[in-house]
Amino acid sequence: MSRSDRAETLLGLEPEQRREELRLLSHAERAALGRHWRLWAHPGQLPPPEAWHLWLIMAGRGFGKTRAGAEWVRAIAEADPTARIALVAASLGEARRVMVEGESGLLAIASPRKRPRFEPSRRQLVWPGGARATFYSAAEPESLRGPQHSHAWGDEIAKWDQSGGRAEAAWNNLLLGLRLGRDPRVAATTTPRAVPLLRRLIAQDAIALTGGPTAANADNLPPGFLDAVQRDFAGTALGRQELLGELLEDVEGALWSRSLLERCRAEDAKDERPALLRVVVGVDPPASSHGDECGIVVAGLGADGVALVLADCSLAKPSPERWARGVAEAARAWHADRVVAEANQGGAMVASVLRAAEFSLPLKLVHASRGKAARAEPVAMLYEAGRVRHSALFAALEDQLCGLMAGGGYEGPGRSPDRADALVWALTELMLGRRVRPRIRSL
Fold it and tell me: Do residues 46 and 72 make contact, with C-beta atoms less than 8 angstroms apart?
């Protein structure tokens, strides 16, 4: 039986039976059938059978989104010599590293006879039949103004640069250039994040949407990976987003929304860390030595007047000695000018515990006269005004911020928003208190 006949026989089986048969194949047999993508793909990785203009794969990490996008492009390029394909990623580096040269990229999945020629200087792939693919950066929307394409693949579109509407401008220019061929189509692959572009696409009627959890691709993931990530992230909002592939909705009436936090995120690729005037560690000590978190958040004030959240060093269920040592380590690591700690739950005890961990700690005790949400409202306004940036994704902290309700109340994870409260103390000290302007220094 030829490889093609064997592949067709296997394709005629039900998916579960086919997976069992594939597991029984020898290494040589698996290698021989390795290029028959439909054999190995799970349903969420295959293009919908009905007519569509936009196919969106929104799924958890490790679902196989990149492989699905690359296989779709490969099938087009090998079947249509006139195809002109756009490959768009968050940056040119990511387009080349992931979409072209990655483990699931276009070069890796091609058969030797049909492998495209890679021309890095022209940012182009050329297939033996004549099809061409050019890669672009979504951070440069104007580069997509003018070129025409018959097909396009946008990878990790929720990661595209959101500042100044760049992501939507890049998408608009991409769509306006899809005017070659008789049936122009675009595929987009992404892990869900609450950004305007993704919300806009999901709201459209004419969209083919597939996706699912990380577990759908369990056969192709390293042993133990799923157990490890489930252990760390099961039951958290980050787990729902990154593993289950859910687009998390905002809580109505919350002071922070996820789309607001995405707008305020500083991407390492485009934002160099500014010189900092001050660095503050905000601390929300636990009320007891069992069950509560100690919120420890580090933030710095830039010379441009914008605050940068640098680190979330919070600790779960720490003893007094452990959380005091954690505060001291954070202050030392980030060269903090001030440690601001809430002292409502025994001010003298808080001071003595912190001094025991580090005698020279530049400590300031603060007393809360209002509730957490009331204290947080002015800080949330700083975010709205674009005066605060997050240097990274702080999942647990951001989950708590999105649970603080205007007018009071908390609807986020855990009993209390300890991390969010620590952030509020740090940013209040940096941005809303009386400040001097010490010499500028760089971390």
Answer: no
